[in-house]
Design brief:
The protein is an alpha/beta fold. The protein is built from eight helices and 13 strands. The radius of gyration is 17 Å and the shape is globular. Pfam families: DAHP_synth_1.
C-alpha cells in the first residue's frame, strides 16, 4: 500500500505515523465539520498524514433500539463535504457488497469491520471499487490469518490494503492487543492500531458497550513503540452524549496533547 496514493493525503514525507480519526458515527453535518476542523488543524501543525473517519451507518449494534445512523445517503454526503471542505481523504465502514459500490462514490477508504473480516464477497467487492481497503483484524483471528484477508484484496489487482488491529477477545467483555502480531502483519500490509476500540468492553448486560478511555494514551504509546504505521482513534467533543461508542472515545480536547506526545515518541522510534 502506498500512502501517497490516497487522494488529498498530506505530510506523507514527514516520516510520521498516519492517523484515521473522527467520530464513531456521523450524527450530523455540524458535528462532523467541527471535529474534522479541529483534527486537521492539529495534524497540519504536527505534520501527520490524516484521514477523517466516520461511519455512515452502524450495523453491528447490541440492541434493536441502538442508534444506527441518520440515513445512508445523508451521512455519505456529509463525509464528502468534509473531504471537499478540508481537502482530506475520508474513510467509512461498510457491511454489505451493495454498501461497497455506494460508499465508494463518496469516500476514499472502505473499511471492513472486524466481525466481517472473513467475508470474502464483501472484501472482494470493496477491493473491486479500486478504493483503499482497510481490513480490521477479527477479534477471533490470528495475525497470520490476515495474510489471506489481504490476498483477497491484492488478487483483484488492488494493492491498496491496510490491516487494523483492534484486539483479540479475552473472555466475554475485554479486548487484548498482542503486539507480537504487529511485525507479523506488517509483512502483508501497513498496520494500524485501533486504539479506542481495543479498549472497548463489549457485551455488557445493559446492551451498551463500555470502555476504558483512561488508557487511550497508554495504548497509543505502546502502538507507536511497537512500530505500527498508523493509529485509529475515535473522538468526540461530547463523549457522554455521543450516539455511538461514547464510552471508549477520546475527548476531542485531549487530542492535541496526545498527538504531540506521540509525534515525539515516533521520532525516538525512528532512530531505531
Amino acid at each position: 500500500m502506498n500512502l501517497s496514493l490516497l487522494p488529498q493525503i498530506k505530510h506523507t514525507d514527514s516520516n510520521n505515523f498516519f492517523l484515521l480519526s473522527g467520530p464513531c458515527a456521523i450524527e450530523g453535518e455540524d458535528m462532523a465539520l467541527r471535529i474534522a476542523e479541529h483534527i486537521v488543524t492539529l495534524t497540519d501543525e504536527l505534520k501527520i498524514p490524516y484521514v477523517f473517519k466516520g461511519s455512515f451507518k452502524k450495523a453491528n449494534r447490541s440492541r434493536l433500539d441502538s442508534f444506527t445512523g441518520i440515513g445512508d445517503e445523508k451521512a455519505l454526503k456529509i463525509l464528502r463535504k468534509v473531504s471537499e471542505t478540508f481537502k482530506i481523504p475520508t474513510v467509512t465502514d461498510i457491511h454489505t457488497e451493495q454498501d461497497a459500490a455506494m460508499a465508494a462514490e463518496y469516500v476514499d477508504v472502505l473499511q471492513i469491520p472486524a466481525f466481517l473480516a472473513r467475508q470474502t464477497d464483501l472484501v472482494v467487492a470493496a477491493a473491486e471499487t479500486g478504493k483503499t481497503v482497510n481490513i480490521k483484524k477479527g477479534q477471533f483471528m490470528s495475525p497470520e490469518s490476515m495474510k489471506h484477508a489481504v490476498n483477497k484484496v491484492t488478487e483483484t489487482g488492488n494493492q491498496q490494503a491496510i490491516i487494523t488491529d483492534r484486539g483479540t477477545m479475552f473472555g466475554y467483555q475485554d479486548m487484548i492487543v498482542d503486539f507480537r502480531g504487529v511485525p507479523t502483519m506488517k509483512q502483508y500490509a501497513p498496520v494500524v492500531l485501533d486504539v479506542t476500540h481495543s479498549l472497548q468492553q463489549p457485551n455488557q448486560s445493559s446492551g451498551v458497550t463500555g470502555g476504558r478511555p483512561a488508557l487511550i494514551g497508554t495504548m497509543a504509546r505502546a502502538g507507536i513503540a511497537a512500530g505500527v504505521d498508523g493509529l485509529f482513534i475515535e473522538t468526540h467533543f461530547d463523549c457522554a452524549n455521543a450516539k455511538s461508542d461514547g464510552a471508549n472515545m477520546l475527548d476531542l480536547g485531549l487530542m492535541k496533547k496526545l498527538l504531540t506526545d506521540l509525534v515525539a515518541l515516533r521520532a525516538v522510534v525512528n532512530e531505531f
